[in-house]
Amino acid sequence: MRSSRVGMVWGLALAVGLGSAGAWAAPRSAQEVLEAARVMWRGDTFHASVALEVTRGGETTVYRLELWAEGEARALVRVLAPENDAGSGYLLLGDDLWYYAPALGRPIPLPAIALQEGLFGSGLDLDDVLRGTGAEDYDVALSPDQPEDGYRLVLVPHSGAATVYGRLELALRSDLALREIWYFDQRGRVVKTARVSDFLELPGRVLPRTITIEEASGDRTAVVYERLVVDVPLDPALFTVETLVGR
To answer: 116 with 8: CB under 8 angstroms?
Structure first.
């Protein structure tokens, strides 16, 4: 298993997590804005079918995934295509992460650092997908350059936080739907940008449908949610090693 296969999946959950903006009063501080946005992204449960188009070095491969998640602590990802990756997947239970592929014959545990690597060499991190931006790991401030129709936040990681980035900047619409994320390295250079270009609007909720991640290297990842079911009960047996290996 290539280590690059691990990281992307947790970013998919960030892009799909749900909540109801209507439950929030108008936020005032940067921390309130971030927490309200996290509620918008994060929901109780979701089940999604995802098309993932990864372009690296001028070559493009399309993957299809199925994803189930409950909160930030339990998630299952199944790879459906292409054929040579079909049947593989990932399981997250709290801080424990497993990977399985039919060729391996058994699930293997992965270290926590694997959450920060890109699945299939893509630009989206696993930690983003399943957990979202961990507000507890960052100092959050409103950018002095605020848009008229939304918010811009600056997130600087605490000393010792498990992140490879020097800071993140988030652009939000006035309804707290995420528009864009800029990822900066330790020298203040933008190393990748994630942009939402298509939204799915439900009563009290605005969800991203299409996300494009562009890296400074020129590599590109496009994520499209083709089917999405939210806030429906999920069988607890989904989130088990037995389900991961298809038993």
So the answer is: no
The reported pLDDT for the residue numbered 152 is 95
Select from 157, 188, 186, 182 the least CA-distant residue to 170.
182
Cα 220 → chain centroid: 16
Enter the tokens of residue 101: 């592929």
Q: Of how many residues is the chain composed?
A: 247
Percent of the chain with pLDDT over 70: 77
Q: Are 213 and 193 in contact (CB under 8 A)?
A: yes
Please state whether 221 falls in left (phi above 0), alpha (psi between -120 and 50) or beta. beta
Domain boundaries, the chain: 3-244
- Name residue 27's amino acid: P
Instruction: Write the pLDDT tens digit of every residue in 34-72.
Output: 888 776 666 678 888 999 999 999 999 999 999 998 887
Cis peptide before 144 (omega within 30 of 0): no
Residue 134's nearest CA partner among 72, 205, 212, 47 is: 72
Decide if 148 contacts 125 (C-beta within 8 A). no
CA distance 165 to 234: 34
The structure tokens 């997250």 sit at: 92
Spatial separation of the C-alpha atoms in residues 137 and 95, rounded to whole Å: 15
Between CA 110 and CA 97 the distance in angstroms is 6
CATH topology of domain 3-244: outer membrane lipoprotein receptor (LolB), chain A (2.50.20)
Residues of the chain with pLDDT under 50: 1-24, 130-131, 133
CB-CB neighbours of 17 under 10 Å: 24
